Structure formats: structure tokens, C-alpha cells
Amino acid sequence: MNTSAVSTGVSSISLSQRLVAGALALLLGLTLLVGTGFAGDFRLHNGAHDTRHAMGFPCH
Amino acid sequence: MFRNLFLAALVAALCAGLVTSAFQAWRVTPLIFAAESFEGSGETHVHAEGEAPAHDEATAATAHDHGEDEWMPQDGFERTAYTVLANVLMAAGYALIIGAVSVVFNLPVTFANGLYWGFAGFAAFTLAPALGLPPGMPGMPVADTLARQIWWFTAAISTGAAFIIVAKFRAPWALALAVALILLPHLIAAPQAPDDPTGVPPRMTAEFVSAVLYNGAIFWVVLGLAFGRMADYLAARPAAIPSGARA
């Protein structure tokens, strides 16, 4: 199905490189997600308050 | 590859973050503001009828556990600016998670399949958590926050894993496992909100849930399509413009 340049680009890279890139992206992504949507710190909570409600994150 | 992944995620996050910000300002935030005007309104009524102020404070504290002296953005431009910033950062978080799934499982995001990614993200991160934990407005009674957050993550990860499994393995066992993973969080009951009285009108509560689900759908469709379009562009580029940098 995916015969585009992206698939050839991704599959030409070794598994370990993919895992490293994936782990880095996941770590950074989760940090941003937890920071905006979940962190208990009141500054983060109050700054992102409307985002949390609008995106359906568990808020107060 | 690292560069392409992060660039595609960044562009997708900007697109989806700004689109959701516009929709939120139009249909979601006005409801949050309206609900905030009801926050504690029940107590004002009680107060007028002469109930003890001590009870007053206790109810207010459970409804909305913020100290009065906490920092929070000023209503108006500052609050909107923080919300837009938070939306873009959250979008970047989701885009990077999508990117991570894409590289680790070798499932490319393209403009052609971006809609599938968007729908999968919507199902995993909006629909599945919302089935157990209906999106709520300020001033509504809620269960313990940490318990809800744990259930929210369980529902999202379990549903997301189901999509990855069916995308990777086209076999009956994979389909069965995916169905089980989608059902699992809903068999573990989500933390239930207490039946405390709230001043928020039921009609507004229903409108809010619809608005949040619609908002989630727009956000995820834009995120998936923008990510795919950018990934296509970046993958095609080195051939056309030799930049020297290994993509």
C-alpha cells in the first residue's frame, strides 16, 4: 500500500537507528503531553487549564 | 531520519495546535467560561438562604481545589495566549508519539494514510478515554485526579496498541487481540464521579461533551494529514534538492 518515498526511506534505516529515534521522539512527546495535560504543578495546570478541559484530559 | 521525523512532527503540531485553538475559542472555551461562572454558584444560593459559611468553603474547596493565591493567567489575551501555547505543545507531544510509533513499528505516515492515523489517534486519545471519563467542565464533581489519569492512560495505550497490532499483523489472532485490547479498559471500570450537586446546567454539560469530541476529531484529522503531507515532502526533497544533510 505504501510505496511512497517515505516507506523506502524508513525501511532503509537499521532497526537500532529506528529504535533510538523512536525512543527519543517518544520520550520528548510524552514529556510534552504529560507537561500540558497531566502535571500536577499548579503553574502548568493553570496555564494549560483550558487545553486540558477542551482535550478531555482528566482535570479538577 | 531524525531531522525529518522532528520536522514533520513540528509542522503537524503547529497546524493541529492552531486549528484546535481556533475551534476551541469558537465552541469550547465559551462553555468553560460559562461553567466557571456557575462554579460555586450553588454555594452562593445556599449562602443567601443563610447556611453556615464553613460549609460554603468546604464545598467550594472540593469543587475546585485551587488556592486563591495561585498564579493563573489573566482572563483575556494572557489566558488565550497560554491556551494556544499549551495546545501547540500538546500537539507536538502527540505528533512526536505518532512519529515514534511510525519509526519503531515501520509504519510510515503519508498524506494518503494520514486520515487513518488521525482516526486512530482520535479513537485512542479522545474516544476511548471519553467513554469512561466523559469530558467535564470546571465546577463539575469528579473522582480522584490521579486515579482518572491512570485510567485515561490505560484506555489510550490499550486502544492505541490495538491499532498498531492490526496495522502490523493481518491475521485473525491479531484482530481478536485488538478487540480484547479495545474492550479491556472499559471492563476495568473508570473512576466514578461522586453524585455531588453542581450548578452547571445539564444542557451545557451535554454541549460541552459534543464540542470536545468534535474538537478532538478536527485536531486528530489535521494532525494526521499534516504529518503525512510533511513526511511525504521531506522524504521526496533530498532527491530533488541535494542538501548534504543525511535525512
Automatic annotation (TrEMBL), chain A:
<protein>
    <submittedName>
        <fullName>CbtB-domain containing protein</fullName>
    </submittedName>
</protein>
<dbReference type="InterPro" id="IPR012667">
    <property type="entry name" value="CbtB_put"/>
</dbReference>
<dbReference type="Pfam" id="PF09489">
    <property type="entry name" value="CbtB"/>
</dbReference>
From TrEMBL, chain B:
<feature type="transmembrane region" description="Helical">
    <location>
        <begin position="114"/>
        <end position="137"/>
    </location>
</feature>
<keyword id="KW-0472">Membrane</keyword>
<feature type="signal peptide">
    <location>
        <begin position="1"/>
        <end position="24"/>
    </location>
</feature>
<protein>
    <submittedName>
        <fullName>CbtA family protein</fullName>
    </submittedName>
</protein>
<keyword id="KW-0812">Transmembrane</keyword>
<feature type="transmembrane region" description="Helical">
    <location>
        <begin position="81"/>
        <end position="107"/>
    </location>
</feature>
<feature type="transmembrane region" description="Helical">
    <location>
        <begin position="211"/>
        <end position="228"/>
    </location>
</feature>
<feature type="transmembrane region" description="Helical">
    <location>
        <begin position="149"/>
        <end position="166"/>
    </location>
</feature>
<feature type="transmembrane region" description="Helical">
    <location>
        <begin position="173"/>
        <end position="191"/>
    </location>
</feature>
<keyword id="KW-0732">Signal</keyword>
<dbReference type="Pfam" id="PF09490">
    <property type="entry name" value="CbtA"/>
</dbReference>
<dbReference type="InterPro" id="IPR012666">
    <property type="entry name" value="CbtA_put"/>
</dbReference>
<keyword id="KW-1133">Transmembrane helix</keyword>
